[in-house]
Write a structure and sequence with these properties.
Number of helices: 7
Number of domains: 1
Oligomer: single chain
Order of helices and strands: HHHEHHHHE
Shape: globular
Length: about 260
Amino acid sequence: MSFESFFASDKFNFKQVITPYKGSKRGLFIYRVIVFIIFCFGLFCSIYNSINTDPKYKRKTFMWASYFTNQTFIGIMIYFFANIVFYCVDKNGKLKGRINNSVCHTIVHMFYNALFPLAILVTVIFWGMIFPVLNTSYFNFYHWSGNVIQHLFQSVFLGIDWYLITVPTSVSHAIPMIIVGVAYLIFSQIYHSIYDIWIYPFLDHSNKYWYVIYIALIIAWCIFGVIFSLIQNFKNRKREFVGEENEKNKADIINV
């Protein structure tokens, strides 16, 4: 079994990401443009929030890019922007089926499979663990807008998009989820060693149960990955994958 087939990426085709299960390609395109505009405003609010933080809390450095929520949000914006571009390229009849390099093709496929569960995970962690202890007394319109768009609407909008398109998956896509989780934990340790700041308080080693929290987080990443791959397989059970009906996609290659 090849690396590509192990992740069911041999069935993945770029035309799948612009072809909705219901409705038209143009309708999905318009939806994505509207969502992307909303997300651009959300990005502005998010950066504003990082600059205008709790007056009682003085940060040693600008931490915006270190937060997993922000990193995921950028990934979601890339997702919508890329799909908007794919539609425009397809409109001109130039969208190819796949990337020539099978590893790159598989990694892109992983991105499409991992993003929605990551968005849900961000929503659960923010509203379940972070927001309850957050000081909101200084919040204004931009603070509230940024948090709602970035930590709630992103899951809703991406969930709608996820439902509309049909992309192959397998339980093996839980592996990239685990890798992303472990990589971020390693990143947080490096960040702390450089700036002496814990990105999230619950990662602080001063908590005697920190190792339990770390293990629980990794397990949660794994469970989320498995659950969403099963849900997606259930969603896809009666759908056809665009591009499966003919083998000429082998000739529709993006040279990398």
